[in-house]
Amino acid sequence: MRTTSILTLHQKWPGLAQGLEITRERTVKGQTTVEVEYAMTSLRPEEADAKRLAGLVREHWGIENCLHYVRDVTLGEDACRVRKGSAPQVLAAVRNAVVHLLAGVSAPSRAAAIRRLNAHPEEALALLDLPQPQ
Protein backbone atom coordinates (compact mmCIF):
# COMPACT_ATOMS: atom_id res chain seq x y z
CA MET A 1 0.00 0.00 0.00
CA ARG A 2 1.15 3.48 -0.82
CA THR A 3 -0.42 6.63 0.61
CA THR A 4 -0.21 10.30 -0.19
CA SER A 5 -1.55 13.45 1.37
CA ILE A 6 -0.51 15.57 -1.63
CA LEU A 7 -3.89 15.73 -3.31
CA THR A 8 -4.82 17.91 -6.25
CA LEU A 9 -8.61 17.71 -5.92
CA HIS A 10 -9.01 18.04 -2.14
CA GLN A 11 -11.08 21.21 -2.60
CA LYS A 12 -13.80 19.15 -4.36
CA TRP A 13 -14.07 16.72 -1.42
CA PRO A 14 -14.07 18.53 1.93
CA GLY A 15 -12.43 16.36 4.57
CA LEU A 16 -10.38 14.36 2.09
CA ALA A 17 -7.02 13.74 3.75
CA GLN A 18 -5.23 10.89 1.96
CA GLY A 19 -5.20 8.95 -1.25
CA LEU A 20 -4.31 5.26 -1.31
CA GLU A 21 -2.92 2.88 -3.88
CA ILE A 22 -3.47 -0.74 -2.90
CA THR A 23 -1.67 -3.43 -4.89
CA ARG A 24 -2.84 -7.01 -4.45
CA GLU A 25 -1.04 -10.05 -5.79
CA ARG A 26 -2.89 -13.33 -5.79
CA THR A 27 -1.92 -16.82 -6.92
CA VAL A 28 -4.65 -19.35 -7.67
CA LYS A 29 -3.81 -22.75 -9.15
CA GLY A 30 -0.35 -21.53 -10.13
CA GLN A 31 -1.58 -18.40 -11.96
CA THR A 32 -0.61 -15.06 -10.44
CA THR A 33 -2.64 -11.91 -11.01
CA VAL A 34 -1.97 -8.36 -9.84
CA GLU A 35 -4.75 -5.88 -9.10
CA VAL A 36 -4.33 -2.19 -8.28
CA GLU A 37 -7.09 -0.31 -6.47
CA TYR A 38 -7.31 3.37 -5.58
CA ALA A 39 -9.15 4.81 -2.61
CA MET A 40 -9.39 7.93 -0.51
CA THR A 41 -9.98 8.56 3.16
CA SER A 42 -10.72 11.38 5.56
CA LEU A 43 -8.20 9.95 8.04
CA ARG A 44 -5.12 12.16 8.26
CA PRO A 45 -1.62 10.58 8.14
CA GLU A 46 -1.17 11.11 11.88
CA GLU A 47 -4.45 9.21 12.49
CA ALA A 48 -3.77 6.35 10.09
CA ASP A 49 -0.49 5.44 8.48
CA ALA A 50 -0.23 2.90 5.65
CA LYS A 51 -0.13 -0.03 8.10
CA ARG A 52 -3.35 1.03 9.85
CA LEU A 53 -5.08 1.76 6.54
CA ALA A 54 -4.10 -1.70 5.27
CA GLY A 55 -5.70 -3.18 8.39
CA LEU A 56 -8.88 -1.19 7.83
CA VAL A 57 -9.06 -2.36 4.21
CA ARG A 58 -8.60 -5.98 5.35
CA GLU A 59 -11.38 -5.49 7.94
CA HIS A 60 -13.67 -4.19 5.20
CA TRP A 61 -13.02 -7.26 3.07
CA GLY A 62 -13.49 -9.49 6.11
CA ILE A 63 -17.00 -8.07 6.47
CA GLU A 64 -17.61 -8.42 2.74
CA ASN A 65 -16.47 -12.04 2.74
CA CYS A 66 -18.18 -13.06 5.98
CA LEU A 67 -21.50 -11.22 5.78
CA HIS A 68 -22.25 -10.12 2.25
CA TYR A 69 -21.05 -13.36 0.67
CA VAL A 70 -23.35 -15.31 2.99
CA ARG A 71 -26.29 -13.06 2.15
CA ASP A 72 -25.56 -12.91 -1.58
CA VAL A 73 -24.57 -16.49 -2.29
CA THR A 74 -25.56 -18.80 0.58
CA LEU A 75 -28.95 -17.16 1.13
CA GLY A 76 -29.50 -16.35 -2.55
CA GLU A 77 -29.97 -12.60 -2.26
CA ASP A 78 -28.39 -11.91 -5.65
CA ALA A 79 -30.75 -14.36 -7.37
CA CYS A 80 -33.86 -13.00 -5.65
CA ARG A 81 -36.31 -11.42 -8.12
CA VAL A 82 -38.44 -9.62 -5.50
CA ARG A 83 -38.41 -5.92 -6.37
CA LYS A 84 -41.73 -4.29 -5.41
CA GLY A 85 -43.15 -2.71 -2.31
CA SER A 86 -41.60 -3.35 1.06
CA ALA A 87 -40.86 -7.01 0.31
CA PRO A 88 -37.15 -6.45 -0.56
CA GLN A 89 -36.57 -4.72 2.80
CA VAL A 90 -38.46 -7.43 4.66
CA LEU A 91 -36.45 -10.17 2.95
CA ALA A 92 -33.19 -8.33 3.72
CA ALA A 93 -34.20 -8.12 7.40
CA VAL A 94 -35.06 -11.83 7.43
CA ARG A 95 -31.70 -12.68 5.83
CA ASN A 96 -29.89 -10.56 8.43
CA ALA A 97 -31.76 -12.40 11.20
CA VAL A 98 -30.85 -15.76 9.63
CA VAL A 99 -27.16 -14.79 9.41
CA HIS A 100 -27.27 -13.80 13.09
CA LEU A 101 -29.02 -17.03 14.12
CA LEU A 102 -26.66 -19.19 12.06
CA ALA A 103 -23.73 -17.74 14.02
CA GLY A 104 -25.00 -19.76 16.99
CA VAL A 105 -24.83 -23.07 15.13
CA SER A 106 -21.68 -25.14 15.53
CA ALA A 107 -20.67 -25.71 11.89
CA PRO A 108 -17.66 -24.91 9.69
CA SER A 109 -19.67 -22.50 7.51
CA ARG A 110 -23.10 -20.87 7.28
CA ALA A 111 -23.98 -23.24 4.42
CA ALA A 112 -23.04 -26.21 6.62
CA ALA A 113 -25.13 -24.73 9.43
CA ILE A 114 -28.14 -24.56 7.10
CA ARG A 115 -27.61 -28.18 6.07
CA ARG A 116 -27.31 -29.19 9.72
CA LEU A 117 -30.57 -27.43 10.65
CA ASN A 118 -32.32 -29.02 7.66
CA ALA A 119 -31.25 -32.43 8.92
CA HIS A 120 -32.09 -31.58 12.56
CA PRO A 121 -35.20 -29.36 12.59
CA GLU A 122 -35.45 -29.73 16.38
CA GLU A 123 -32.19 -27.73 16.63
CA ALA A 124 -33.69 -25.02 14.41
CA LEU A 125 -36.74 -24.81 16.69
CA ALA A 126 -34.48 -24.63 19.77
CA LEU A 127 -32.42 -21.90 18.09
CA LEU A 128 -35.62 -19.88 17.68
CA ASP A 129 -36.68 -20.78 21.25
CA LEU A 130 -39.82 -22.48 19.93
CA PRO A 131 -41.40 -25.53 21.54
CA GLN A 132 -40.60 -28.95 20.14
CA PRO A 133 -43.47 -30.77 18.41
CA GLN A 134 -44.96 -33.67 20.41
Give a structural overview:
With 134 residues, the chain is α+β, with helices and mostly antiparallel strands. It is 43% helix and 19% strand. It has four helices and three strands, in the order E-E-E-H-H-H-H. The protein has a three-stranded antiparallel beta sheet, with no helix packed on it. Strand 2 (18-28) and strand 3 form a beta hairpin. The longest helix has 25 residues, at 50-74. The radius of gyration is 21 Å and the shape is elongated. The relative contact order is 0.09. The mean pLDDT is 90.
With strands numbered from the N-terminus, the spatial order across the biggest sheet is 1-2-3
Number of strands: 3
Structural class: alpha+beta
Q: What is the count of helical runs? A: 4
Question: Span from first to last CA?
Answer: 60 Å
Question: Can you summarize the main beta sheet?
Answer: 3 strands, antiparallel
Poorly predicted parts: none
- Assembly annotation: single chain
Instruction: Name the helicity range.
Output: 40-55%
Q: What is the succession of H and E elements? A: EEEHHHH
* Spatial shape: elongated
DSSP strand content: 15-25%
Report the mean per-residue pLDDT as an integer: 90
Backbone CA Rg: 21 Å
